[in-house]
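Q: I'm a student working through a structural biology exercise. My instructor gave each of us a protein and asked us to get a predicted structure, then write a short paragraph describing it. Mine is Siderophore-interacting FAD-binding domain protein. I'm not confident about reading structure output yet, so if you can add a plain explanation after the tokens, that would really help. Here is the sequence I was given:
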Amino acid sequence: MGRGFQGAILRGLGARDHVATVVGTAPIAPNCVRITMSAPTLFEDLLHTPAEWLRFWFPDPDGGTSEHQRAYTIVATDEDAGEFSIDVVIHEPAGPPASGRWPHDRE
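A: Happy to help. First, here is the predicted structure for Siderophore-interacting FAD-binding domain protein. I'll explain a few features afterward.
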């Protein structure tokens, strides 16, 4: 899948991919959900500090070869468990990542 110029720059800077699996969701407001994910290798590269953020790449919901990037601030971490949480605002119209299956759809 293609990440374009941003992906090439990040790869050149030594950034590596981490797989994050949704392990839980919790509504925190009418249009906001907290998503907890497990990514055991993430904390090998990340020293969590206030306002730390992650760049997520989502596949094209139409099945194309490009990927769509979104950045989210980490709101909670459990380094021993290899887990972190982000807050996501649910809005309309949905952007490209939310047009397909999205983590907050998980129960």
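A: Here are two points you could use in your paragraph. The domain at 4-99 is CATH 2.40.30.10 (Elongation Factor Tu (Ef-tu); domain 3). The chain has a mean pLDDT of 77. It's a good idea to check both against the output above yourself.
Q: Great, thank you!
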